[in-house]
Design brief:
This protein has 624 residues and is of the alpha/beta class. The chain has 18 helices and 32 strands. It binds coenzyme A and adenosine monophosphate.
Length: 624
């Protein structure tokens, strides 16, 4: 079937469409109803279905004869180690780890926080939690202690899974001081921490709190899968919004499994047995969906890569992995290829490898910029596909549906809406805009399976943050336009969220840290375009009167504070002390205009501005 009738059907008969897709899974109890509503009034998929996501990702493949196939390949240039884990081994390991968790009192609906580097055991932790019907919440290893505290307090886990360290090319990061500090700061009491000992960092287990991962698993009695309702949560993944407090995006079990499996057919054209590599991190949604769940639910081989696109050891790192493990599909962020291109502009490293297994490249996390697309097109001669998605949806909202029909690529566009997504462009008053006009990108409800039904512990935030601005539609927070062929061009966020090296960060959160410095009277943090990382945060800071530190000393402290409170991943490396900031007469800082000035874009001076001279000063600052 071609894309157009398939997409039309998914919009005009969503229940029929998704019930058919649900047939691909071995449900414990098949759903008889596609769409229903929950107590909050949110749309819910497969309301009377029952399943276990770990069973579908692991056990079912052993049952069906894939036990000897590689399920996971762990490839770690930073430690110089590699390991292949078959589906049968994965089943045995996950059942034992689930046994450890069960013995610590973890059961259906309990939360398990996972703060781990890119190791096989991080995936095991997620699957073991799913096996018990518990809810995992993975926290990216580049976040600092207070980010972990926020998530622990919000998710209130029974146990935290961690490792003694993470490894960056330049240094070993001791995790245990971070975990200790985070748990000491948390209001929620965590009684158990399961610690994976790694050779690169030693640690003395805390009596009465810590358990050693390896010995606990060795002694454990394996746990069986616990079936849950399709609408029960599988995980919570925190993501940045406009305020300092991260939002706990909730993913259900049933809709998620159906959408993941379907996306492998439609979006990626991947079959059971294929090798699929998402070069991301399990701390991000791409890692959840395309390192862990979608490839395993499909019976593919997935890669857990503990390394970087460059420096581990060079710009040929990705191509080496593709050759060695016969990767069919490579999915990465554009920033990774910009880093490779910077070091290997002529593709010499690329030509060192046999890349005949590779059939397509998929890019997401930020817009695929045309120069990077052209470079990849010329280098590989393969389909280079941009697709747009968000933590909130868990899979592509717009894509080139290569598994159905490879559509002509238009540079700068994420192509067409994925099945089930009815994408529209509205102006700020909610009026639909014609082709070519830029506005708010929204999706008509009901959203398809896998999309979040709520924000953990804060349903009003779900309504106010996403559903209220345009009744009947989900507000994506991105702006852009549809062209005359229906191609979607995503042009950037309409809020204060920025995207640094494919990582979603809140400038509001950074502002909270900067404003907490005793010398700071007021501040704004804005995203400024960067040729490598897409965007970088820059602080504009007004000091209190009578501060006797030098500007330079204060800027250093601000950089230190953001690194300590949010983490190195924020890449907050630049701040300017300014005498004033442009504001409206009601005292609101004109952040949207600041962003435009910093990025050299045209802007209109609003009639409500209080002090136009402040604009000139900022303009001069960025002109230098
Ligand atoms: N744990 C701890 N620290 C981490 C970390 C982790 N998991 N990941 C990154 N960091 C640290 C880095 O060490 C660095 O610290 P530094 O300031 O002391 O040097 C800082 O966070 C910024 O890291 P990074 O963005 O990785 O910058 P880089 O300059 O080292 O590398 C790229 C640049 C482009 C190679 C890198 O950003 C990259 O691989 N990007 C792709 C990211 C990605 O896959 N995103 C997709 C999400 S879907
Ligand atoms: P995250 O929730 O971390 O996956 O970040 C989602 C945000 O990243 C989106 O709202 C977009 O702003 C941006 N994004 C992701 N993929 C793309 C893409 N292909 N094109 C443009 N922006 C993207």
């Amino acid at each position: 079937m071609a894309y157009a009738p398939l997409h039309d059907r998914s919009i005009n008969d969503p229940e029929g469409y998704w019930m058919e897709q649900a047939d691909a899974l071995a449900w414990a109890k098949k759903p008889t109803q596609a769409l229903g509503k929950d107590a909050n009034g949110s749309d819910r998929w497969f309301v009377d279905g029952e399943l276990n996501t770990c069973f579908l990702a692991v056990d079912v493949h052993v049952r069906d004869g894939r036990g000897d196939q590689a399920a996971i390949i762990y490839d770690s240039p930073v430690t110089g180690s590699k390991r292949v884990i078959t589906y049968a081994e994965l089943q045995s390991d996950v059942a034992k780890l689930a046994g450890v968790l069960r013995d610590q009192g973890v059961g259906k609906g309990d939360r398990v926080v996972i703060y781990m580097p890119m190791v096989y055991e991080a995936v095991l932790g997620m699957l073991a939690s799913a096996r018990l019907g518990a809810i995992h919440s993975v926290v990216f290893g580049g976040f600092a202690a207070s980010e972990l505290t926020t998530r622990v307090d919000d998710a209130q886990p029974k146990i935290v899974l961690t490792a003694t360290c993470g490894i960056e090319p330049s240094r070993v990061i001791d995790y245990m001081p971070i975990v200790d500090e985070a748990l000491a700061q948390a209001s929620h009491q965590v009684d158990r921490v399961l610690v994976l000992a790694r050779d690169q960092a030693s640690y003395d287990l805390k009596p009465n709190r810590d358990l050693d991962w390896a010995s606990s698993c060795a002694e454990a009695t394996p746990a069986e899968c616990v079936n849950v309702n399709a609408t029960d949560p599988l995980y919570i993944l925190y993501t940045s919004g406009t305020t300092g407090k991260p939002k706990g995006v909730v993913r259900d079990n049933g809709g998620h499994a159906v959408a993941m499996r379907h996306s492998m057919d439609v979006v990626y054209d991947v079959q059971p047995g294929d090798v699929f590599w998402a070069a991301s991190d399990v701390g991000w949604v791409v890692g959840h969906s395309y390192i862990v769940y979608a490839p395993l639910l499909t019976g593919c081989t997935t890669l857990v890569y503990e390394g970087k696109p460059v420096r581990t050891p060079d710009a040929g790192a990705f191509w080496r992995v593709v050759e060695e493990h016969k990767v069919k599909i490579l999915f990465a962020a554009p920033t990774a290829f910009r880093a490779i291109r910077k070091e290997d502009p002529n593709g010499d490293c690329y030509r060192d490898y046999d890349l005949s297994s590779l059939q397509a490249l998929y890019l997401a996390g930020e817009r695929l910029d045309p120069p990077t697309q052209t470079w990849l097109d010329n280098l590989t001669g393969l389909p280079v596909i941009d697709h747009w998605w968000q933590t909130e949806t868990g899979w592509a909202i717009a894509c080139n549906p290569r598994g159905v029909e490879l559509l002509p690529v238009k540079q700068g566009s994420a192509t067409l809406p994925a099945p089930g997504f009815d994408v529209r462009i509205l102006d700020d008053d909610g009026q639909e805009l014609p082709a070519g006009e830029q506005g708010n990108i929204v999706v008509r409800r009901p959203l398809p399976p896998s999309c979040f039904p709520t924000v953990w512990g804060d349903h009003p935030r779900y309504e106010s943050g996403y559903m209220e601005a345009f009744p009947g539609y989900y507000q994506s927070g991105d702006g852009g336009y549809l062209d005359e062929d229906g191609y979607l061009f995503v042009m950037g966020r309409t809020d204060d969220v920025i995207n640094v090296a494919g990582h979603r960060l809140s400038t509001g959160e950074m502002e909270e840290v900067v404003a907490a410095h005793p010398a700071v009277a007021e501040c704004a943090v804005i995203g400024v375009e960067d040729t490598l990382k897409g965007q970088l945060p820059v602080g504009l800071v007004i000091l209190k009167d009578g501060v006797d530190q030098t500007d330079e000393a204060i800027v250093k402290e601000l950089i230190r504070d953001v690194r300590a409170k949010i983490g190195p991943i924020a890449c907050f490396q630049s701040a300017h002390i300014v005498p004033r900031l442009p504001k409206t007469r009601s005292g609101k800082i004109l952040r949207a205009i600041l962003r435009k000035i910093a990025n050299g874009q045209a802007y209109q001076v609003p009639s409500t501005i209080e002090d136009p001279a402040a604009l000139t000063e900022i303009q001069q600052l960025f002109a230098n």
